[in-house]
Amino acid sequence: MSPVGIGIAAESVGDTPIIQQLVDRLLIEGIAWVKDTFEACQGSMPDPLSSCRSWRGVDGSGWLDIHKASDLARERGLRIYGSFGGVPGEDSARTYRAVLMLFAEEDEPPKAVVIAQDLDHTERARGFEQAATEKGRMWPFVVVGALAQPEIEAWLIAVWVPEDDSERQRLAALRSTLGFDPCAEPERLSSTNKESPKDAKEVLEKLTKTGRTATARWADAPIERLESSSEACRLAGFVRDVRKHLVPVVERG
Q1: How far is CA 195 from CA 110, 153, 198, 237, in A?
Q2: SS3 content of the chain, % helix, strand, coil (to 5)
Q3: Contact 41, 48 (CB under 8 A)
Q4: Burial class (CB in 10 A: 0-12, 13-18, 19+), 72
Q5: Residues 64 and 9: beta-carbon distance below 8 Å
Q6: pLDDT tens digits, 214-233
Q7: Which candidate, 13, 39, 41, 179, has a CA 20 to 30 Å from the CA of 78?
Q8: Which residue ranges make up each domain of the chain?
């Protein structure tokens, strides 16, 4: 059986492994034969799940840059403008439509597409829904949005847990400065002003000043913690959507 193609579009090459790693963990958790494959190949292959699923962008690339999608779609003569079921689209909806059109135009479209983008406290979530569920158009794959509020660093903060006294003191100091617990309410952080004490990237840097890296903690954070994270940061919702829509696609093969 050929690996199931999963398309991924993201804002940066650094965001893609964060999303891929979580999806892979949910595939291992939810599908017995994927778990068996992972356990059999772990340690002997750089990608133990390569026979189960294949991550890709378009034209043979490993991922699709969201920022380049609209220009690429226009170059190929794809019509990304126009209303969505008779309703004017949000600005972001056209970008997401371009992403989905590019994947749909592949000689062999993937069976699922994950779109990862920071919401930045904007209308992007509405735009995503308009493009993914557009009336009168049937995409040849399931579509899942990894839309972090306000940005993907908030998801890393949501699963960060202090592991020693110095880290507990660091978190307490941040709570005092911010007036809230950034790990419990990461959606209250900001993403557009690096000088702000609420900037998610700056908060994450302070939390991980010493000790294990954010990506190391993300890699082994209990799935239950991801599920119990603040709904407003949209991490728990992404976990649910992957389980509901993407896992069954891979399970069917």
Answers
A1: 40, 16, 8, 30
A2: 50, 15, 40
A3: yes
A4: middle
A5: yes
A6: 999 999 999 999 999 999 99
A7: 13
A8: 4-149+234-252, 153-219
